[in-house]
Every structure is written in structure tokens, then in C-alpha cells.
Amino acid sequence: MNQSQQTIEPWLRGIIRCPQCKGEVIDATHAGDDAAAAAGASSAGTSVTELRCDTCHLAYPVENGVPVLLVDLARRTDS
Ligand SMILES: [Zn+2]
Question: What class is the 10-76 domain?
Fold first, then answer.
């Protein structure tokens, strides 16, 4: 079995927009260092799925297939 729990429902993925600029976001992955370690449940070496907005330079986390579209929780990608 190789089904990812991070998969976003296609209908949901199709309507997701960046909450800040209302632009489209792209699928991306980020090495799960701090976030995954803090959760404590994941094994090391996992990567986290995120939705990235290159306009705002923000990456929104996806938790258990649910995108967290909050600017306050987004990771900055331009630093
Ligand atoms: Zn944006």
C-alpha cells in the first residue's frame, strides 16, 4: 500500500486559492524537520505537503490532507 494520507481531495484542491492574494497555489513538499518533529507521531525523514504561493512567498501546510489556509500559520519561503 502506497496511498498517501496527504492527498487533498480533488474537488477541494480545485477551489483552493491563496487567502492573501486569491491567486492559485502550487503543490509542494518541504522536508518535515520542525513541524513533523513537534508532532512527535511521525517517523524521521518524512516530508510534509504544503501549498505554496509564489506571489506571496508563503507556503500553507497540509495536515492530514486538509490544507490550512491561514496566513498566520504559513511558512515564509523568501527568507
Ligand atoms: Zn498569495
Answer: mainly beta
For the chain, what are the domain ranges? 10-76
Distance CA 47, CA 11 (A): 23
C-alpha cell at 78: 523568501
CA of 22 to the centre of ligand 1 (A): 6
- CA 19 – ligand 1 centroid, Å: 7
Write out pLDDT tens, residues 14-68. 999 999 999 999 999 888 666 545 555 555 567 778 999 999 999 999 988 889 9
- Tell me, in angstroms, the distance from the centre of ligand 1 to residue 59's CA: 9
